[in-house]
Amino acid sequence: MSKAKGSNDAAGGMAFERKIDEIEAKIAELEALSLSTHLDISPELEALKAKRTEEINKTYADLTAWERVNVARHPKRPVASDYVAEVFDDFLELHGDRYFADDQAILTGFATLDDRRCMLIAHRKGRTTKERLECNFGCAHPEGYRKALRKMRLAEKLGLPIVSMINTPGAYPGIGAEERGQAMAIAENIMAMFTLRVPILVVVIGEGGSGGALGIGIGDRVLMLEHAYYSVISPEGCAAILWKDGERSPEAAEALKLTSKDLIGLKVIDQVISEPQGGAHRAPSVAMAEVKRVLSRNLEELEGIPIEQLLEARRAKYRHIGAIQGRFPSLA
Q1: Out of 40, 124, 144, 154, which could bridge 103 as a Cys pair, Cβ 3.0 to 4.6 Å?
Q2: Going by C-beta distance under 8 Å and a sequence separation of 6 or more, which residues neighbour residue 318?
Q3: How many CB atoms lie within 10 A of CB 172?
């Protein structure tokens, strides 16, 4: 079966970036030649680098929804462990749900953001193959969501703001997870997050899939990286259910309105965080520095709002999502 247009190729690249990859391969070849022969080929290198920049700008000027999904899944895109290393200081991981196990797909712990102590809750995908298997590719079990809720309750007790970083294709749908109450764990988290008496800041850093994302995704402000996606279901899952055809995933991605541009227009999210041209995977440190700046500013603003006002606005925010002007006057 052929791959859907724009999908990742076997080497980990993206089909729509093929021209960029070819130029970068030529640049690497010339740089290696320059080192081995000491020839001055700087004019040729500069020309190729300019061509690469032009091609990146052209490619990323008008990405389709499916292409953005593939950017969100890029293997070199920053993940939770990268943000812990570069954005947060003094991270102290907290483990376990005190009921069943310590789910590696959910990372929780105390952290400092620009001298502001907070509780970090994040989906953990891992970087290497071994780490990804240990973290179940970011698909959390019920114990992961229960762990997250315990740590959020602790943050409330200590008066610490909560920063939640979403990056999951969805909660784990296996038999064991269902037997241990997957749906109930997610539902309990959603309900509890509406009542937590501390600021909650949510940011979608990669994939934001289904209830797996919502299980740690209720907040006073929901931010989203430019090339992340946030959806009720993955495009592949949608295509499989509606058409029984995975080849129609690009069509499903368009219909789902899952891009940052779509969601800011629908008022599902509150702010889009810009990425370096060509995506966060091309300049991870630059992307994470921008995330840090935006998180710090939003946390400062949220901490200046009285808690009762914050809770009222949090509830109103989610009640208004999806309201249709005219049909539901009370929600308009």
Answers
A1: 144
A2: 194, 218
A3: 21
What pTM was computed for the model? Answer: 0.86
How far the first Cα of the chain sits from its last, in Å, is 47
230 CB-near residues (< 8 Å, 6+ apart)? 166, 204, 208, 213, 224, 258, 260, 263, 268, 269
Name the residue with higher pLDDT: 18 or 327.
18
**Which H or E run includes 71?**
helix 65-72
Angle, vertex CA 45, rays to CA 41 and CA 47, nearest 5: 120
Residue 62 in tokens: 């008008």
Given a contact cutoff of 8 angstroms between Cβ atoms, the answer to whether 135 and 212 are in contact is: no
* DSSP type of residue 98: S
One-character DSSP codes across 8-35: B-TTS-BGGGHHHHHHHHHHHHHHHHHH
Length of the chain: 332
Q: Rounded CA gap, 85 and 81, in Å?
A: 6
For the segment 114-150, what is each residue's pLDDT rounded down to a tens digit? Answer: 999 999 999 999 888 899 999 889 999 999 999 999 9
Task: Give 60-102 pLDDT, tens digit per residue.
Answer: 888 999 999 999 999 999 999 999 999 999 999 999 988 898 9
For residues 76 and 310, what is the distance between their CA atoms, to the nearest angstrom?
36
The single-letter DSSP state of residue 4 is P
CA dist., res. 216 & res. 212, Å (int): 8
Structure-block tokens of residue 53? 């920049």
Question: Element (H or E) spanning 222, and its range?
Answer: strand 221-225
